[in-house]
Amino acid sequence: MQENFSLKAYNTFGVDVKAKYFTEVHSVEELIESLKPVKSQSFPLLFLGGGSNVLFTQDFDGLVIQLNLKGISEKNINENEVLVTVKAGENWHEFVMFCLNKNYGGLENLSLIPGNVGTSPMQNIGAYGTEIKDTFVSCKVLNLDTLEVEEFDLEKCRFGYRDSIFKQEGKGKYVILEVTFKLTRENHIIKTEYGAIKTELENSGIQKPTIQDVSKAVINIRQSKLPDPKVIGNAGSFFKNPTIPLTQFEDLKSKFSTIQGYPNGDFVKVPAGWLIEQCGWKGKQIGNVASHQLQSLVIINATGNATGKEIFDFSTMIIDSVKEKFGIELEREVNII
User: Fold this and answer.
1) Is 321 assigned a catalytic role?
2) What is the C-alpha separation between 251 and 167, in angstroms, rounded?
3) Residue whose C-alpha is closest to residue 282's, from 259, 303, 298, 302
4) Residue in 90, 131, 310, 333 annotated catalytic
């Protein structure tokens, strides 16, 4: 247990804040042991994985626990399916690469998403037409009240768009220890319809893509428009893509003919990046903070010296301008601490 510990290296924005107490755990037993003083003293508690979806706006006056649970195991179900169980502390992209090296399909569209496996079910991470819930079987969690291990199946997790029980009534009540996915061993379902994947594959002369080809295409796309957090501080997409009623979308379409949207019944998902760009934020910098010049959905610590409050205030200005112009209120995808 360390005191007044800098979290600058533990969040991808590179914000320099301190935790009153900090510890790393490598097993469930260590985790339970570290939680005992918290239960007796009742001070704030925060679990960190890769620190890729969090914005610290102030020092944390409690205990931060870095989850370093490691390990991957496999169990064949039949000739075409395999269960893969992965501990929470494994890096997400490295886990996806592990699966692709084994020719396990289902996660290739989620290549190069930052963060660790343990945080992936919290917001049902997704990209290019795929979400965690598509291959998710179950996860083991630690109940922070009872310190007992429980298992959550797909239904119990109540996944939604960038949402789950862990962000709703289960928030702060559980910590995810491991996740199990059902992946394909052959007869893979190739998804190339969403975003620029198909164009990327065509440019590479690939007509019958493998899951490895899809992964490479996704990586190329992400690297071409998303900044590397190791180079410049960011948390990937800062905002969720808003979903609005079809009637509202049609009204906006009459005013803004180039507005983009993905219909889903009586609702339409509108790309937040397009809305932000139309409000003039793409590449705009105020002080230490900027909207990325290639992807306005990404807010960056442009100078490396931004405080969390500066980044938060910058995001508020974006939200206000989008609401004023389009009548749509953007929701932050990043967790604000």
Assistant:
1) no
2) 32
3) 298
4) 333
Residue 333 is a catalytic residue: yes
Joined tokens for residue 133: 């819930």
Specify the DSSP class assigned to residue 141: E
Q: pLDDT by residue (tens digit) across 291-315? A: 999 889 999 999 999 999 999 999 9
Residue with tokens 């592990």: 98
Check residue 103 and give its pLDDT: 96
296 is annotated as an active-site residue: no
Cβ neighbors of 116 (< 8 A, separation 6 or more) are 49, 50, 67, 88, 89, 90, 91, 92
Active-site residue, selected from the candidate residues 111, 120, 138, 237: 237
pLDDT, tens digit, for every residue of 128-159?
A: 889 999 999 999 999 998 999 999 999 999 99
Residues 233, 212: Cα–Cα separation, whole Å: 29
AA letter at 273: G
pTM of the model as a whole: 0.82
Options 162, 200, 310, 315, the catalytic residue:
162
User: Tell me: the pLDDT tens digits for 163-204?
Assistant: 899 988 888 899 999 999 999 999 999 998 876 888 888 888
Distances (CA, A) of 178 to 73, 184, 213, 257, 268: 11, 20, 28, 46, 34
C-alpha span between 269 and 293 (Å, rounded): 23
pLDDT at 161 over 90: no
- For residues 1 and 22, what is the distance between their CA atoms, to the nearest angstrom? 6
